[in-house]
Amino acid sequence: MPNSRKFKIPIGPQHPALKEPEGFSIALLGEKILGLDIRLGYNHRGVEKACEERSYIQAMYLVERVCGICSHAHSTCFIQAVEEIGAIQVPKRAQYIRTIIAELERIHSHLLWLGVAGHEIGFDTLLMYTWRDREVVMDLLALISGNRVNYGMNTFGGVRRDITPGHVAEILKGMDILEERTKYYVEVATQESTIIKRLSGVGVLTLKDALALDAVGPTSRASGVDRDVRRDDPYAAYSEVKFDVITDDHCDVYGRVIVRVKELMEAYKIVRQCCQQMPEGPLTVKVPRKIPAGEAISRYEAPRGEDVHYVKSNGGEKPERVKIRAPTLANVQAVKCMLKDGQLADMPIVVAAIDPCFSCTDRLISIAEPRKDKRVMRWDELRDHGIAWHRARGIDMDGLNLKFRKMLERV
Amino acid sequence: MVAALFAILIFPGLLFLLTSGLVFEFIDRKTYARLQNRVGPPWFQPLADIIKLLAKADVIPSAANPKMFGLAPLFAFTAAATAFFYIPLWKGQSLFAFEGDIIMVLYLLTIPTLAFFIGGWYSTSLFARLGSVRAVTQLFAYEVPLFMSILAAALLADSWSLEKIALFYAHHPLYCLFNVVGFMVAMVAMLGKLEKVPFDIPEAETEIVAGAFTEYSGRLLALLRLTVDTEMVVCAALLVAVFFPFGLTLPPVLGFIVFLAELLIEVLALSLLRTVVARLRIDQMVEFCWKWLVPMSLFQLVLNLVLKGMLT
After folding, report:
1. What one-character DSSP code corresponds to residue B172?
2. Domain definitions of chain B by residue range
3. In terms of domains, do A51 and A30 share one?
4. Angle at CA of residue B244, ends B243 and B250, nearest 5°
5. Which residues of A touch B201 (CB under 8 A)?
6. d(CA A389, CA A99)
7. Residue A184 contacts B, CB cutoff 8 Å
8. pTM (2 d.p.)
9. Of A119, A124, A198, the CB nearest to B281
10. How many pairs of residues across A and B have Cβ atoms under 8 Å apart?
11. Which candidate, A114, B62, B77, B309, has a CA 20 to 30 Å from the CA of A325?
12. Same domain for A384 and A342?
């Protein structure tokens, strides 16, 4: 490094700015970013394959654990696909309850994000305040579902728990508190000069780029893309509530803050409407154990953007194929574009601004192109290579193999 | 001899300095926590941190230059502690004094930053090197307004000795009011020197881990932590001595209490400042210093020149 001003700095897989292991290799010229290399895949858990090995109901619980923050998003998205294949009509009340949980989840996710964003720009006070307020909604979720993270509310054909009038009163009380606090954050975000200085003009993603790179959720809406699955392709009870799709044309991180903070206000509106309009009725309908053959794609507006699940059934007890595309996968490519000609100091906040959830994203299997120093081997080639490698070091298994073969023949 | 050693090692020397450093670190952390709606650490936390670090192994990276790596924290601490001896605390008399010592104190207070730079640079880690380069870049931005605002006050007092400056303002308290702009500039520049939010750019943890301190561990890190604490007390004491040394004319014990109270106000103000702002980028920091702080300190300098002509 001393001889040249250009150098590469690794952010991740282990780094204080990242909450999950993820690799960013940044080429720097002084403080300026020349290029960026993103490496996904440190968190691959094989969720899709695991789903195919389990029954539908087991798979649903597994899918809920795809993400620790938008767990309801994934499980709802998955069961919507299954319900579509099975032509199951979900009762109205269950749809309203799903909507309420979905919006409470959005509130907790956005508040969490606001805190993380504050931390990334060294404004820890904002982190402490938003996370304190986030407890209000976490408590509500725990009150309703018994859990703070994986709510376990969904089941095929409805929901497992009811929202009682007592819960409704608590929810409305919580919404009032949060609305007041959120108004304060709007004030802070729009008036505190160091925040504005740090966020505006940073991580610019133009409308054209947002469309070309297919960004989703608040990331795209902050670039002026007027797209929201809740309005465009309503699911659950969204067709029956009134809300605005928030867009912003700042195109930078500041715009993303504004969109998320305003979306919080919309979420309070939706929760209130759902609480008032929720009809009486059953929570579930009976669902057969076997889902008929067929396939379906389900879309869901998760807090981070559009979540897509594909389920294929062959009529058995287990899904034949499950494909999950988490919103972060759609957004992560945009980071490269946002960081072009940026400053190193902006890197954490720009990455954080897409609200990344890498472990949700990491389920791709990619076969890398062989590089010059590497070659792809087939299994038998690898075996031959291994035998030759050991033989060259004086370890010969041939005698042992013969012995085994003889033993097997005797048996 | 014994008296001098007592003064240097115990009171008001090293021991007092270290104790007050740890106490003010606690006050700073507790205030910061309470303002953020957190509980905050117990009173012994800073000391416990130091003891824990002292018990840990020193890991020196194999690629680092062990001599420079080990010496840098020592240099930093010595310089910060030495500066303290020249600051008049409450009796109207500092431990050592000579005409022109204000320059030396400012110079000694620059050394820790340079030592951090050297330590970070010789630890050869990328994060440490970036952090140390940032520390020096920042130095060039805040040092000029800091010097100008402090020297402007010295100009009005017509002396280059800290002791005489302090005594002058102690006897003419109203003159302090002229230096309000300079004081504000010095406060903000001090945030840069102490590497606190919004100027904690050299150790921005979300970008470059811990900056120049990244590779330090064990006793060396403990020494660095002590340096930072000491620096805070010395800087606060310097500001008190130059801008509002009201305790100097009072009887010893009362004067000491007033001095501590002023120090406390300084530290509280620093914690409050770092609670309400976000971290700036290095380019924004440099721009801010040259666009706002330097003109403000220049204004102070000119004002004091004019005042001096008018009043004497």
Report:
1. -
2. 2-311
3. no
4. 145
5. 345
6. 60
7. no
8. 0.80
9. A198
10. 78
11. A114
12. no
Of A248, A220, A215, A245, the C-alpha closest to A230 is A245
**CB under 8 Å to A25, separation ≥6 — which residues?**
A8, A9, A10, A11, A36, A37, A39
> Cβ of B282 and A31 within 8 Å?
yes
Q: Which residues of A touch B121 (CB under 8 A)?
A: none
The total number of structural domains in chain A stands at: 3
A122 in B contact zone (CB under 8 Å): yes
**Residue B201 forms contact with A (CB below 8 Å):** yes
**Assigned token pair, A42:** 């440190």
Note whether residue A82 is domain-resident: yes
Establish if B261 touches chain A: CB-CB under 8 angstroms.
Answer: no
DSSP state of B123: T
The answer to whether residue A23 is domain-embedded is: yes
Task: Identify the domain containing residue A315 by its residue range.
Answer: 47-361
8 Å CB contact of A344 and B283: no
pLDDT of chain A, 411 residues: tens digit per residue: 444 567 788 887 887 777 778 788 888 887 788 888 887 778 788 888 888 888 888 888 989 888 888 889 999 999 999 888 888 888 988 989 999 999 999 999 999 998 888 888 888 888 899 999 999 999 999 999 888 888 888 888 888 888 888 888 989 999 999 999 898 888 887 887 778 878 888 888 888 888 888 888 898 888 888 888 888 888 888 888 888 888 888 888 888 988 998 899 899 989 989 888 888 888 888 888 788 888 888 989 889 888 899 988 888 888 888 888 888 888 888 888 888 878 887 888 888 888 888 777 776 555 556 566 667 777 788 888 888 888 888 877 777 778 778 877 776
Cross-chain residue pair A348–B127, CB shorter than 8 Å? no
A294-302 sheet: strands from edge to edge: A294-302, A305-313, A319-325
Domain membership of residue A224 (yes or no) is yes
A345 near B CB under 8 A: yes
Q: Strands (DSSP E) along A213-349, which ranges?
A: 294-302, 305-313, 319-325
The two three-digit tokens of residue B201, written as one number: 């750019």
Considering the domain architecture, whether residues A186 and A224 belong to the same structural domain is answered as yes
| Assigned domain for A370 exists | no
Count other Cβ atoms within 10 Å, centred on residue B10. 11
Q: Locate the DSSP E strands across A21-164.
A: 23-29, 32-39, 154-155, 158-159
Rg from Cα positions in chain A: 25
State ipTM.
Answer: 0.79
Residue of chain B minimizing CA distance to A352: B206
A179 shares its domain with A211 = yes
Beta strand A305-313 pairing with A319-325: antiparallel
Alpha carbon distance B29, B21 (integer Å): 12
Q: Are both A277 and A393 inside the same structural domain?
A: no
Residue B25 near residue B46 (C-beta atoms within 8 A): yes
**A9 shares contact with chain B (CB less than 8 Å):** yes
Contacts of B127 in chain A (CB under 8 A): 9
Q: Are residues A135 and A34 in the same domain?
A: no
**Residues A92-126 as b or e (16 or more Cβ within 10 Å = b):** bbbbbbbbbbbbbbbbbbbbbbbbbbbbbbbbbbb
Residue in A closest to B199 by C-alpha: A122
Asked whether the beta carbons of residue B206 and residue A132 sit closer than 8 angstroms, the reply is no
What's A13's DSSP letter? Answer: S
Residues 218-247 of B with CB under 8 A from A: none
Are A208 and A172 within one domain? yes
Do both A273 and A388 map to the same domain? no
CB A101 within 8 A of CB A278: no
